[in-house]
Amino acid sequence: MGLADLYTSRTPLYFGGVEAEPDRADMLVVGVPYDATSSYRPGSRFAPRAIREAAANIELYSLRAGIDLEDYRIADLGDIALPVNPQEVVKRIETVVAELLENNPGKLLALLGGEHSITLGAYRALARHDTNPCILVADAHFDLRSEYMEEKYSHASVMRRITEVYGGERIFYIGVRAFAKEELEYARSKQIEYITSHTARLLGVREIVNRASRWMKKAGCQSLYVSIDMDAYDPAYAPGVANPEPEGLEPWMLLDTVFRIVAESSVSLRVVDVVEVSPPYDCSGVTSVLAAKTLLEVFAAYLIQRAKGAR
Q: How far apart are CA 235 and CA 6, in angstroms?
């Protein structure tokens, strides 16, 4: 029995409505029910269950990939049991994710957030396991504040903590549109690449994918982490998020973009997370459904990539 077994608890719901044995699975799913630093609309600690329920009630065929995910095995490992202190939460997530990556080589690990601060622990774990992992972030916000409400491990500071240790050249944003001037200045000073939601529409999917490909080559990425904050979508499509911002991306555009970046890349996708769904604010559960759909399309892209033999 490892630490991952000690710190995870099984749930009555399974992602996609089916259960597979971890050692036979193609993808692993873990819930991270945490929102202690949420600054506007808390409730993302309830998101793992809501996303699981949504995934069990939508179709699993990907038109983009021509793949039926029912033909593959998804193992839902349950939720990570977390303390309250933000710094200890990061350590706990790092411990669990590091062990899961070590014990399950070649499998994609998906995290169901939870707020965006969970990404720090998971990225640290990947950096321990792989050389030079890069992170593709879909988000309305930079999350580059030095601290927020006197908390350095806040959801508003998560990418600042990553940048400080691993460098800004490893980060590529899609959909940013809401930030403080200091965050923008910091992003530029650290040579962080980003495409705002406004610029994304002007460029189109193909050019965004090309720019992301050039970024991965320039940064020397050896593996890839994809982090999708659901507020990257416009709140017309994803109203149930912790910090909604107008002028976001349409689902087709973000899904097409992330799918193509992953499917066409030779850099292996290792971890994906979907964060910041807040079920108490989610009209008719549509945000949870979109979150589930987002993960399924990333799974499909990963399977295409794997079939191509990505390194």
A: 37
| pTM metric for this prediction | 0.94
At 237-273, the pLDDT tens digits run 999 999 999 999 999 999 999 999 999 999 999 999 9
Other Cβ atoms less than 10 A from the Cβ of 272: the count is 26
- Which distant-in-sequence residues (6+ apart) come within 8 Å of 82 by Cβ? 32, 33, 34, 89, 92, 93
Which domains can be identified in the chain, with CATH numbers? 3-307 (3.40.800.10)
**Mind listing the pLDDT tens digit for each residue in 195-212?**
999 999 999 999 999 999
The answer to whether 270 touches 224, Cβ cutoff 8 Å, is yes
Q: Cα–Cα distance between 92 and 253 in angstroms, integer? A: 34
Residue 214's DSSP bridge partners are none
In 96-222, beta strands by DSSP E: 108-113, 133-138, 171-176, 193-196
Tell me the pLDDT tens digit for each residue of 112-150: 999 999 999 999 999 999 999 999 999 999 999 999 888
Residues 152-191, buried b or exposed e (16+ Cβ, 10 A)?
Answer: ebbbbbbbbbbbeebebbbbbbbbbbbbeeebeebbeebe
